[in-house]
Amino acid sequence: MQRFLKPLLLFLGLATAATLFAAEPSVEQRLADLEAYFKNSAPATSLVGAPGPGHNGWLMVSAGLVLFMTLPGLALFYGGLVRRKNVLSVLAQCLGLAGIVTVLWWLCGYSLSFSKGSPFLGGMGWSLLRGVTAAPNADYSPWVSHNIFAMYQLMFAIITPGLIVGAIAERMRYKALMAFCVAWMFIVYFPSAHMLWGADGWMNGLWNDSAKIKAIDFAGGIVVHMTSGWSALVLCLLLGPRKGYGREPIVPHSMVLCMVGTGMLWFGWYGFNAGSAVAADTVSSNAFVATTLSAGVGLCVWAIIELVHRGRPSILGMCSGAVAGLATITPASGFVSPTGAVIIGLLAGVATYLACAKLKLAFGYDDSLDTFGVHAVGGTLGTLLAGFLATPEVNPNLAAERIRGLVGNTLWLEQIKAGGLVLALSVGATVVLYFLIDRTLGCRVTEEVEHQGLDLAEHGEEGYTH
Prior knowledge:
With 466 residues, the protein is mostly helical. Helices cover 66% and strands 0% of the residues. It contains 15 helices and no strands. It has helices at 2-23, 27-39, 53-81, 87-114, 146-168, 174-197, 221-239, 255-273, 282-310, 315-329, 338-363, 371-389, 411-440, 447-452, 454-459.
């Protein structure tokens, strides 16, 4: 018996050792994985399924920066621009949306936006964030944890309906706005995010070989600014103007808060744009530079126009110009050169100034805090310009077989198609939702409440006690 047992044990030991040795990656394979990490490409052996610390850390920071844009950046920016009797109402709207959208995102919003399903809407496989773990999902990043990517995208979902607040400030009921935004997320935001950014999205020209419209949207010109901006225009038209609008002065109560909010928005926008590379790589660096240049140029353009037409630049104008430059560069930030970013900032400043100072006056609509004039006009313009100015020298992903034939040729047509479809969806959905909610909850506050101020009437609090 022992004569057969010893050879058998020896054979099993050698076989086990050979298996372990074969499974152990070689030095060359390990080095190849490290090289892939620095190049933000997929690992092949020892690091498969492991999040990369640098890329992961950058996206965590970026998620915090994007949340900082809403809380407190957007809240203070909008809060300073309303009258003092309504400052808390704007803060409450931004804060409430942050909570509600977070719950929706966990429930099914992330899944509907980013899981594979139809070309128009994701499935329910990731509802309740099931299966969304710390391991990377290769459809979106080889190095960033899937759950961190989900949280990063949540911050975009939070700020998008928050932008709508600026068009209807000082006159829409709180519960009506919350109800509108919940329904709007399902009908407009989740489908738009999936179509442009989902792995199997109908208009995801950068990553989906089967996309029918091969559009690009680096950080949300269509998904964030066009959806919210065009919906905001329709909503303010249906609500009607504030009491006294056009007949008596309605001026910001604190340009200090507006300026502080602008600085926070600009700071957070680096997470918004540079973070959308989903890596700390060259594309992210290029987006960081483009964001800075466009914001600075937009600010200068507004200041110069005001100096020429009014004799002096205003803080409000410079703040609006900076935000306009940021909003307009968003869809193009990871695709254009520094000079391209300057061109976009220049055109952004001119177009948004005309929209806010001339178009609104000519047609008489009360876009209270210029959501349409800055975000819809800027996002739409930036989406179109991305089609003309995008270059693979800035973003090598544009050299992929699926899209390189369009770059520098007819990509701008794909941008028009995608932007036009999302614009139509946003406008149509807003009209339907407004009338449904107005019939059930009532959208507009009473004249008495509007005169008293929404802070006391809707929240029982005041922003200032002196």
